[in-house]
Amino acid sequence: MDLIFIEGFSGQTVIGIHDSELHHPQPLLIDVHAGVPRARACDTDRIGDTIDYGMVRERLVRLMAEHRLQLLEAFAEAIADILIDEFGASWVRVKVVKPRKFDDVQAVGVQIDRHAPTHRASKLGHGATVLNFLASGMVPAKH
């Protein structure tokens, strides 16, 4: 698996559950690691064959401006969903940190790991599973 990552992305957003957090943006630090099974870009040398971290960065900027979430857990989940659904990552690790939230603590935050669904057949039902077996050459032998 190849990993594309952004570490130390910083921005400001309104997030939190306390009244003091809901009126002014506060700093967040974000690390994102996105896994892709051996990126085709290794062979093609084309950005279209991998995850473009520049586009991921732009998407993070947009999320920081548009979200209405309160918990860091929900915010991290939104980032994971974006990487899996919009960028095709098969695995992601997202870390979201509020630096210096408390005077006596360097940082608080959350880190999550998520995997993309391994195949859609389970969502599509038994018929799709049979078609997947047929397409893969795994056809039951006649007796």
Number of strands: 4
Helix proportion of residues, in percent? 25-40%
What topology, given as strand order, has the largest sheet?
1-2-3-4
Q: Beta fraction of the residues?
A: 25-35%
Alpha-carbon distance between the two ends: 41 Å
Residue windows where pLDDT falls under 50 for at least 5 positions: 120-136
User: What structural category arises from helix and sheet content?
Assistant: alpha+beta
Taking the sheet with the most strands, its summary is:
4 strands, antiparallel
What is the N-to-C order of secondary-structure elements (H for helix, E for strand)? EEHHHEEHH
| Mean pLDDT across every amino acid position | 86
- Number of helical regions: 5
Measured on Cα atoms, how large is the radius of gyration? 20 Å
Q: Describe the global form.
A: elongated
Describe this structure in words.
The protein is of the alpha+beta class and 143 residues long. It has 5 helices and 4 strands. The chain has a 4-stranded antiparallel beta sheet with strand order 1-2-3-4, covered by helices on one side. Mean pLDDT is 86; it is low at 120-136.
Could you write a compact summary of the structure shown?
Helix content is 32%, strand content 29%. The chain has helices at residues 41-44, 53-66, 72-85, 121-124, 126-135, and strands at residues 2-13, 26-36, 91-99, 107-115.
